[in-house]
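Entry for the shared binder. Reason: the reviewer on the internal report wants the predicted structure included alongside the sequence.
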Amino acid sequence: VTRSPGERLRQWVIEAGGEVHPAVQLGVPRGVSVGGQVSALVVTAPINAGDVLVNLPTKCIFDTDAVCASHVGLADVIELVPAELWPGKLGLALLAERARGDASPFAPYIQLLPVKFDGVPIFFGPDEVAALQYAPVQHQVKLRGRFLYDFAQQHLPSVMAPFGGQQVTTDVLGWGFAAASSRAFGLAGPTGQRSMLPFIDMANHSFVGNAEVIPGPDGAARLVSVSPLAEGDEVLISYGEHPNDELLLDYGFVVPGNPRDTCPIRFDPGLLEMAREMSGVHLMPTEAEWKVEALKAIGLADATNVASSQLLFGTPTDGGIDARLLAALRIRFARSQEPGPDEAAAVELATWRTARGVAELLLASFPTTPDDDADALARRDLPLALAIAHDFRLTKKRLLQRCITAATAKINQLEH
């Protein structure tokens, strides 16, 4: 009997001593067409909350320790990868097992992995990277690309034995890197070793998932439902509390309206002054020794300290405007440490109008408008990478628009 790749993976887990709920299958969720490719975990019959959907035994969990013992020299080359670029470590182990073909104990899993990860930005061309219109992510894409190129050129030409005698090129290393970054889990916690969890990692993302991944007995991993599931439902898990920057870089997608998304800026008195003038705020900031101490207390006394001077738009309070930005503006506009009611009201209005001005300046710094991006996406003729880039930059602009709307509402409240 010829089994589908999904059925072979399911049987592989069961034969290794694991469990897969009979009502959970690899397939295509309702209303989605992906050319017949497996893309999700779907439910074929009702499932109760708390049911174990998958119990994955230790021997099915893919990590560097599970692989290095079978490949001479692999551990040494993996050790050369910086810790912060951990997908490179796991990706090299994955490439070593892929080179073994059907002889790999993980063959049923590796054969089901995507052939390409076109949506992950390390595979973007120069035009697609430029289309992101967002310097922090463009910088990360370039750092990762530089790592892949340098590592492949400097360390891999002389290391072929673990990879079936074949040289690992930059593109091949990129495939391993993207496969690892988009599928790995950290069951041991933020600093623990990340692992790939076959079958479980076919579940797609939702911040409000209907299932979760938890440690099982004897080092196993379990996928457990957290709410009842009906026939036809897709099993969804949360990949973590990630902003769109991380979702794009590691997984190749973004979430419109992502409540965890942010837009960072650096505390810059020059930018604040520009926003004040643009917003028509006539109250002038003043200098005083107590203000230096007050700014120091909120970590903003030294604008050259990049780590401490970062502020965020998109925070869950104050309409998405960083509380430290609002505090800094109040300090700058205040005439005294204990202002009276009239002064306090004027300072508060100047603070919110200037904060809105900062968001407006950031929004205006993008070379295209949100409407431009929405129109381009509506045409549906963009190549995948360009569409993802447009979608990503649109989420940042929409975030800033929400902050501007919230600040305007606050200003109207203060003025009346």
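Summary line for the report: Residues 122 and 145 are 6 Å apart (CA to CA).
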